[in-house]
Design brief:
The protein is an alpha/beta fold. It folds into two domains: 2-228 and 419-475, Ribonuclease Z/Hydroxyacylglutathione hydrolase-like (Metallo-beta-lactamase, Chain A, 4-Layer Sandwich), CATH 3.60.15; 236-412, 3-Layer(aba) Sandwich (Rossmann fold). It has 14 helices and 22 strands. Strand 20, helix 14 and strand 21 form a beta-alpha-beta unit. Helix 4 runs antiparallel to helix 8 (291-302). The protein is globular and about 70 Å long. Keywords: Hydrolase. It holds the Pfam family Beta-Casp.
Length: 476
Amino acid sequence: MKLTFWGAARQVTGSMCLLEVDDYRILIDCGVNFDLDEKEKKALYDQQRSVFPFDPTLVNTVLLTHAHIDHSGNIPNLYKEGFEGQVVCTEPTYSLTGLLLQNAAMLHQKRLNTANGQSSNKKKKRQPVRDIPRDLFTEKHVKEALENFFPVAFGQRYRITDSVSVTYLPAGHLLGAAHIVVEVREDGEKKTLCFSGDLGRKNYPLLVDPYPVPQVDYLICETTYGNRLHEDMRPPEEALLDVIQRTCVDIPGRLIIPTFSVGRTQALLYTLNKLYVNHQLPPLKVFTDSPLSFASTRVYQKFARLLNREAREFKEDNELLFDFENLVYIETGDASQAISNYSEPCVIISSSGMVQGGRVEHHVAANIENPYATILMIGYASENTLGWRLLNGQDTITIRGEKKSVLANIEKIDVFSGHGDQNDLVDFVQMQDKELLKKLFLIHGEAQSLSDFRELLLGQGYFQTEIPERGQTYEL
């Protein structure tokens, strides 16, 4: 049995591992690598003559931990390049992945239209480009992929082959997110692996706590927060109400919250709804400006049975998990632009969470020079994104081609971070007996986070801990 690390190795994004059992090949996650810019991706794909560093036609099955694009976003390209197998995941992951991939295909189509010189206001076409990016896929490819998804239930063993079985355990982090436990029978011997996916945190709004993982031989563990602790330990309702009170009531301003459409927005809306039900939410308009958020919220409502007990009981008592008075869902682009003309104090929730693409760019651009506006960052922002620049205190930023002074207030809270912190990761690893665990692989983290977490684990006696490089193969 061989395990090769092709993504999220010594970096955060692009999760992708290849497990080979005899002549059967299993791909665990198939995510987009956001650590490379377009030129770097093109150079890599041209060198490989493929989006992938292996032949997709030789892959038999994909196991998907959860829907986020850095774990799922290259699945259509896998089919585009000849993969014919199934994608195994939980039911909510299937639904959310469908939404995210369809949204990605729409953005890819815009890229293609731009390259071809087309726009909604321009009927005249240039000569079609010949050098189409290898990773560009369309709705056709997404449809083909989704037709081959195979949803499975949590906690039930699913047999892939006579010698390989998998079990999906709730990981928190996102609706449907899973730890995947793989059991392999090889040469009369049973070997077990666990792929952590992204580890959630305890007591997170809506989501169940990560489930315990049984003893395994090999653990593949993410380390996004491998050297960090969550700073704000207040309940989400208290932390959010404090910001709203200071930015929209004490000072009659507007609060802009960049957030991700899938997962983070639902946690925000649920928290706001709880404040409304408890008569704590000031009488402000709350604009949710993301069509993808609206669609994702419907998925959360559909799978409410899989949410945590508090959320299920809240739904029983109040019927609606996310809707409350003064909440306005924005659908069209024109309606999004029109929010700028709303002069009363308000809350604007829009994607993306890193202020890199999406409608939130318009809202930040329109308010960045307004000292009565506040931009509240509630999650991780990759280096060199606009969100990262704001968090690092830059005096000016260039947004949508214009250089603007940062006069708005920039704040941050991490109560809505969907990742477990260092303590959560340690608890997760410590479920494994260090004497029985044969190898512990650390992935999905920045270089310093990986290094610091490994040192911490070595100090606790996990001497079998390794940080694999991209393309590194291990015989298990």
